[in-house]
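Example S7 (structure tokens).
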């Protein structure tokens, strides 16, 4: 039964927004929670490593053979919105732009910022993705998860999740996010919400290389500083290794200019870190998550 819902030897480059990736031994895109949980149970039972990915918009996957099962959540798209109470239930694979647009159209306030982040709800909670002080943590009620080891399913309340800048406790525990329950303010001004959402997307596309392959900001902003400013200050905009280039539009973005390899991108990340450390005395911590590299988080 399970055998029918995964492929073998799947090239992951089309599952990341920077368009590089390795070959997954097994790969699946479950269409419902039942299949999702079954796959996790199957990999656990067969002692395969199980790696969850969402939209792959914050991922650098090494171009190697990735042993075990990779599960992409993008087909887990159920989204239920109650415009009266403002309660939203979203499966892990719902895209933030979809959520943001739906909220605005239902006069629910508080998700306008999320329109420009091309990731899933699961990835956004795991990363605590956001802009400025805004992230889903603000609107979260609870998260349904499965424990990858014990296979126990549970619902975790927001108060039991640790959220910090681009960090959630899911980065250090063994849970896979299945779905989330959120609350947004009902009865907002429909016209205004739709306009703000549109403007936010426009702002993103005008200030970031949004339509070129990238994984968003490469580094976290150090305290009281901006990674983009530090990289720009030392003249690295436009610097290339192979097909990987530091964007001229936004220095904290690496773009896949012409068939970059994962190693070009990794090398560029380490060169930026070295140069910023030498010139500014600051170590830039990657925001991007790496698969198949020995990167110490
Ligand atoms: C053009 C562009 C603009 C961006 N702008 C922003 C921005 O403004 N702010 C911001 O914070 N980020 C931004 N990003 C980065 C990225 O979109 C976010 O980090 C996003 O939340 C990642 O979601 P994803 O579904 O793509 O996760 P992936 O990249 O697929 O995965 C990221 C991590 O989450 C884990 N994960 C994913 N789903 C689950 C799950 N269901 N359960 C457990 N773990 C899971 C993965 O294992 C991985 O470690 C941008 C990226 C791009 C390409």
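Recovered sequence:
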């Amino acid at each position: 039964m399970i055998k029918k819902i995964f492929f073998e030897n799947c090239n992951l480059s089309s599952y990341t927004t920077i368009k590089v990736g390795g070959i997954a031994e097994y790969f699946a895109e479950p269409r419902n929670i039942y299949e999702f949980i079954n796959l996790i149970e199957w990999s656990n039972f067969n002692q395969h490593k199980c790696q969850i990915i969402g939209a792959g918009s914050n991922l650098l996957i090494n171009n190697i053979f990735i042993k075990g099962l990779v599960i992409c959540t993008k087909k887990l798209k159920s989204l239920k919105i109650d415009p009266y109470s403002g309660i939203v239930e979203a499966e892990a694979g719902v895209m933030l732009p979809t959520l943001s647009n739906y909220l605005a159209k239902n006069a629910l306030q508080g998700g306008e910022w999320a329109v420009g982040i091309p990731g899933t709800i699961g990835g956004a909670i795991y990363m605590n993705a956001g802009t400025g002080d805004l992230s889903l943590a603000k609107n979260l009620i609870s998260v349904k998860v499965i424990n990858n080891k014990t296979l126990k399913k549970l619902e975790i309340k927001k108060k039991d999740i640790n959220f910090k800048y681009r960090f959630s406790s899911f980065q250090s525990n063994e849970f896979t996010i299945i779905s989330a329950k959120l609350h947004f303010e009902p009865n907002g001004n429909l016209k205004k919400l739709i306009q703000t959402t549109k403007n936010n997307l426009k702002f993103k596309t005008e200030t970031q290389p949004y339509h070129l392959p990238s994984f968003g900001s490469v580094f976290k902003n150090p305290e009281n500083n901006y990674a983009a400013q530090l990289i720009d200050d030392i003249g690295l905009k436009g610097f290339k290794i192979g097909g990987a280039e530091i964007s001229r539009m936004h220095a904290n973005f690496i773009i896949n200019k012409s068939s970059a390899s994962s190693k070009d991108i990794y090398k560029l990340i380490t060169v930026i870190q070295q140069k910023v450390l030498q010139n500014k005395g600051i170590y830039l911590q990657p925001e991007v998550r790496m698969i198949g590299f020995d990167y110490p988080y």
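Notes on this example. The chain is about 25% helix and 25% strand.
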